Structure formats: structure tokens, C-alpha cells
């Protein structure tokens, strides 16, 4: 192996090692907003970073060690690493040092960052796609190099054919880190509004009664149908640090200054609420759980909640709700939890 090949192999191995470290940090309950932004910057530094991670993730999914036992051993992982990096580890000590973080990273990748990309139509240009998440947050790279993170039970339809990059958010919440391209506007459609951005980062949350847009970087234009009956659409502009809340019923919008680091904590599995109806909070949390929380009494749904909920600890949150509110949690036969009034 000549010097150039050795340097290239070392770089590829280092890239895989960095990917494993980022995955571990993203799954650490003590991770911070700075960690999330750091991971996004790492992906943005070099297109090969995400390529290496996804290639590693795909290969690892097929390993019998993970499928059968649910964990990885050092020898299987070392073989995979050698295959992806096209090299053999120099010493057994290096193999042991890499095996633990990379094994955990591979497992976490399947749970936390796997993405379902389902082609819907294909033509001679860019295929239309659907990006979907189930009960955990999902991250994906779009055909233009932009990145998206979806909250649980969220899906978007992607159509990058033609002069515009069109995406439709059918439900849930999605964070977009847009690749700069002024010739092809990046437009997210959500219900009665559309959000247009060029080279920025923003979040769109769709709810039954409206849409919330939070701008982390740059500026977005938000078009609504406030005067749709008269054929006069209305457009608002929101800059970084601002949030627009659109009401579908009143067809009105309100722009407020927000702490985006708090508003976007959901990307790390942390959901924050301020004076929200308990029914709306539970409806949101149910997207992250196989077993649902059910409210039978409408009066319970109207109780107000302020606080933070970790999606990985919903059972603990329900116990806390029992202590704070006049409710009792009963377990049903199918595993669901029913909240009833405590008498």
C-alpha cells in the first residue's frame, strides 16, 4: 500500500469513527442543543460524512449478529469496518478500541436515525419520494443535499422536478436545513400555507387547527389563504429567532420572538409545553408510543399543562400527572393507559 492509499484509508476509518461518536452523543439523554447543532455541522462539512454513515448503517443491518442476538461482537464489527474502509486494522488493540463505540452506534442508528425512503414515481429526472417516520425521530438527506429531521409519525412528500423544490407535510413536525439554491426555491406546503426558504433552517409543525413555523437561521416567506375567497393570498416574512403561528379556523397569523433552542428541543427527544391543554399534550405524546394514553372525560383534556416531557420516559410522565392532577391512570388489557377522574 503506497502513502496516498494509506492516507485515504486512514481518512475513511476516521470518518466512520466520528460517525459512531456523533450517534452516541445524539442518543445520550444529557445531550445539549449544542450537540445537535454540532452533528448537523459535521454532516455539512463534507458530503462524504453522511455517505459513509449510511453505507455503514446499511451493511450493519444485514449482519446476523445484530438480527439474532440484538448486539454486536467485536469480530463481526471489525470485519464490517475493514470491508467499508477497504483496510485491515493495524493491531488487535485498535480493533478492541473501535468495537465498542461503533457497535453501539450501529444499534442506535437502526433505532434513531434510520429513514424510510419510498419512491412513489420515477421519471428521467429526480424521482418523487416520501420520507416517513414511525415512533421515533428520523433524519434524512433530500435529493438536493438538504437535510430533514422528522418527529414521530410524520411524513413528507418530496417533488424536486421542475424549477421548484416542493415538499408537502401531511402531519406532524419537520425540521429543515436547506441547501442554498436560489434558482430552485425550497417550498414546504402544510395545509393552507406554504413556507418558502432559500439556504436557511426552519421548523414546520402541522396541527389540526393550524401550522407553526419556527425560523432558526435566515428568513422565510409564509403564504396563507387568509383572503382566499377573494383570490388575495397574504404573505408574511419571519426571520431567525421568530415563530409564526397560523390559525386555520380564523385564517390569521401571529409572529412572536422565541428561544429557538427551546422550541426545537424535540429533535433530541425533549418536548416543552406552556399552558397547553392536557388533551393536546397527550395527543402529541401518543405519536411516540406504541401504547396510547386515552382520556375518557373531556374535562381532563381541558386541564392545562406546563413543563417538559422526555419521549423516552412517557411512563414516568404519566405517574407524575397522577400526582399533580386529579386523575388516575388505569392500564387496559392491550397496554393502553386510560386517564379517569380521581374521586
Topology:
Elements lengths: L2 H25 L5 H13 L1 H15 L2 H6 L4 H12 L6 H21 L3 E6 L6 E5 L5 E4 L5 E4 L4 E5 L5 E13 L8 E5 L2 E5 L3 E7 L2 E8 L1 E9 L4 E8 L2 E6 L4 E6 L2 H4 L6 E8 H8 L7 E3 L2 H4 L2 E7 L3 H11 L2 E5 L5 E5 L2
Parallel strand pairs: 6-7, 16-19
Antiparallel strand pairs: 1-2, 2-5, 3-4, 4-6, 5-6, 6-9, 7-8, 8-11, 9-10, 10-13, 11-12, 13-14, 15-17, 18-19
Give a written overview of the molecule.
The chain is of the alpha+beta class and 343 residues long. It has three domains: 3-112, no CATH class; 116-260, Jelly Rolls, CATH 2.60.120; 269-341, Phage tail protein beta-alpha-beta fold, CATH 3.55.50.30. Helices cover 35% and strands 35% of the residues. The chain has ten helices and 19 strands. It has helices at 3-27, 33-45, 47-61, 64-69, 74-85, 92-112, 260-263, 278-285, 298-301, 314-324; strands at 116-121, 128-132, 138-141, 147-150, 155-159, 165-177, 186-190, 193-197, 201-207, 210-217, 219-227, 232-239, 242-247, 252-257, 270-277, 293-295, 304-310, 327-331, 337-341. Strands 1, 2, 3, 4, 5, 6, 7, 8, 9, 10, 11, 12, 13 and 14 form a 14-stranded mixed beta sheet that branches. Strands 16-19-18 form a three-stranded mixed beta sheet. It has a two-stranded antiparallel sheet with strand order 15-17. Helix 1 packs across helix 6 (92-112), helix 3 crosses helix 5 and helix 5 (74-85) crosses helix 6. The longest helix is centred in the N-terminal third of the chain and has 25 residues, at 3-27. The protein is globular and about 75 Å long. 28% of the residues are buried.
Amino acid at each position: 500500500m503506497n502513502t496516498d492509499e494509506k492516507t485515504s484509508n486512514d481518512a475513511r476509518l476516521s470518518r466512520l469513527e466520528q460517525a459512531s461518536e456523533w450517534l452516541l452523543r445524539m442518543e445520550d439523554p444529557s445531550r445539549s442543543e449544542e450537540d445537535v447543532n454540532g452533528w448537523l455541522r459535521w454532516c455539512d462539512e463534507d458530503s462524504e460524512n453522511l455517505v459513509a454513515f449510511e453505507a455503514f448503517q446499511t451493511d450493519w443491518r444485514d449482519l446476523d449478529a445484530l438480527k439474532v442476538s440484538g448486539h454486536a461482537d467485536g469480530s463481526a464489527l471489525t470485519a464490517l469496518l475493514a470491508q467499508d474502509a477497504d483496510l485491515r486494522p493495524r493491531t488487535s488493540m485498535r480493533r478492541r478500541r473501535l468495537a465498542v463505540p461503533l457497535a453501539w452506534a450501529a444499534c442506535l442508528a437502526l433505532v434513531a436515525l434510520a429513514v424510510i425512503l419510498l419512491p412513489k414515481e420515477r421519471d428521467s429526472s429526480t424521482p418523487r419520494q416520501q420520507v416517513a417516520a414511525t415512533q421515533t425521530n428520523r433524519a434524512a438527506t433530500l435529493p438536493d443535499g438538504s437535510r430533514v429531521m422528522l418527529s414521530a409519525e410524520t411524513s413528507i412528500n418530496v417533488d424536486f422536478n421542475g424549477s421548484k423544490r416542493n415538499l408537502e407535510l401531511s402531519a406532524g413536525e419537520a425540521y429543515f436545513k436547506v441547501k442554498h439554491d436560489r434558482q430552485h426555491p425550497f417550498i414546504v406546503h402544510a395545509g393552507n400555507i406554504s413556507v418558502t426558504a432559500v439556504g436557511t433552517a426552519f421548523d414546520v409543525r402541522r396541527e389540526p387547527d393550524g401550522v407553526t413555523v419556527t425560523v432558526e437561521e435566515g428568513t422565510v416567506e409564509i403564504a396563507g389563504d387568509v383572503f382566499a375567497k377573494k383570490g388575495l393570498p397574504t404573505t408574511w416574512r419571519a426571520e431567525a429567532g421568530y415563530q409564526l403561528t397560523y390559525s386555520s379556523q380564523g385564517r390569521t397569523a401571529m409572529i412572536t420572538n422565541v428561544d429557538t433552542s427551546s422550541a426545537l428541543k424535540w429533535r433530541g427527544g425533549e418536548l416543552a409545553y406552556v399552558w397547553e391543554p392536557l388533551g393536546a399534550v397527550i395527543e402529541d405524546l401518543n405519536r411516540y408510543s406504541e401504547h396510547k394514553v386515552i382520556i375518557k372525560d373531556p374535562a381532563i383534556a381541558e386541564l392545562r399543562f406546563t413543563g417538559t416531557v422526555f419521549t423516552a420516559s412517557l411512563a414516568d410522565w404519566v405517574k407524575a400527572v397522577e400526582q399533580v392532577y386529579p386523575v388516575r391512570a388505569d392500564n387496559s388489557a392491550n397496554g393502553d393507559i386510560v386517564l379517569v377522574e380521581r374521586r
